[in-house]
Design goal:
This is BON domain-containing protein. Pfam families: BON. The chain is an alpha+beta fold. The protein folds into 2 domains: 61 residues, no CATH class; 64 residues, Fe-S cluster assembly (FSCA) (GMP Synthetase, Chain A, domain 3), CATH 3.30.300. 53% of the residues lie in helices and 14% in strands. It has 4 helices and 3 strands.
């Protein structure tokens, strides 16, 4: 190292020693450094643990076979009917006109819907946990007549 660099390093080291070992403010400065160092160590440990958890969860998801939603206990028919009604509200515009009957997990759908909505309705109902089968008795809704102009 050349002489100028050595002199600058020595000056910086001397200034740091004077700054941290000052009689009046040095104790407070050292305490702040310890506190920040401990806080930084704590944050680094938390980040490392979170990263390890994410990697473990990702590995678990990759290794485990695709899970199917199988319920071992039967779902109450009234609860299942409510779940179906709720789901239908997200699939079709006028879900209140549809008839939903549930008996021991077997669902009977009735009412009139647009032809393009029949398949999404049946598919949405079949995916709900607790549904064993879907009997599609939906009919195609007649297209609305064009409004007359006066």
């Amino acid at each position: 190292m050349n002489t100028v660099v050595r002199l600058a390093v020595a000056f910086a080291a001397g200034a740091a020693v004077m700054y941290y070992f000052d009689r009046e403010g040095g104790r407070l400065r050292r305490a702040r450094v310890r506190e920040r160092g401990g806080d930084l160590r704590h944050r680094l440990e938390e980040a490392a643990q979170a990263g390890a958890r994410r990697r473990a969860e990702r590995t678990h998801g990759t290794v485990m076979p695709e899970r199917t939603r199988v319920r071992t206990e039967p779902v109450d028919d009234a609860l299942l009917r409510d779940r179906i009604r709720s789901r239908l509200g997200h699939v079709v515009a006028h879900s209140s006109t549809l008839v939903v009957d549930v008996e021991a997990g077997h669902v009977v759908l009735g009412g009139a819907v647009a032809a393009s909505d029949i398949e999404p309705v049946v598919h949405a109902v079949a995916e709900i946990p607790g549904v064993r089968s879907v009997d599609n008795r939906l009919s195609v809704q007649a297209p609305e007549r064009a409004a007359s102009r006066h």
